[in-house]
Amino acid sequence: xxxxxxxxxxxxxxxxxxxxxxxxxxxxxxxxxxxxxxxxxxxxxxxxxxxxxxxxxxxxxxxxxxxxxxxxxxxxxxxxxxxxxxxxxxxxxxxxxxxxxxxxxxxxxxxxxxxxxxxxxxxxxxxxxxxxxxxxxxxxxxxxxxxxxxxxxxxxxxxxxxxxxxxxxxxxxxxxxxxxxxxxxxxxxxxxxxxx
Length: 196
Fold this sequence. Notes:
This protein is mainly alpha-helical. It contains 7 helices and 4 strands; from the N terminus they run ββββααααααα. It has a two-stranded antiparallel sheet with strand order 1-2. Strands 3-4 form a two-stranded antiparallel sheet. Helix 5 (111-127) crosses helix 7 and helix 6 packs antiparallel against helix 7.
């Protein structure tokens, strides 16, 4: 082998063997210079956006129903018994907002906006005398209620639709993970400030 030349690196991709040096794999269309799989992924991405949009629209369309069902779930759950200290209208409005504006929350909301919102919620629940465990469980219940709704409502016929739904759920999951963290942090900050 000549000096300065490296051997082709071969590996596996989701589409099979791939020669990283030449860029040619089994799905490469040498005539057009475009990988067949690239076309598949582009189409899947466009369709995935449509599927994600359908799911988000479905959730937002049923936001009243979801908020009402969540309230029934929370009010009958002994793990969050001290949520009765929060006005019912406030809880229902917050649940409605999450479901109604889900696309904004998961697609355009920055981490600093999530921090600001959920830190304030954590501090407010601490001031209302709600236990941190109840606060966190209520946020988990919002997510679980959403998952239950999607399992019941969404029926996808093809594997790629399921894949796109899974990707959307991962984005939503990340949102709720951040919400849990910042709510706990806001709660802790409020508790610490009250103690001083």
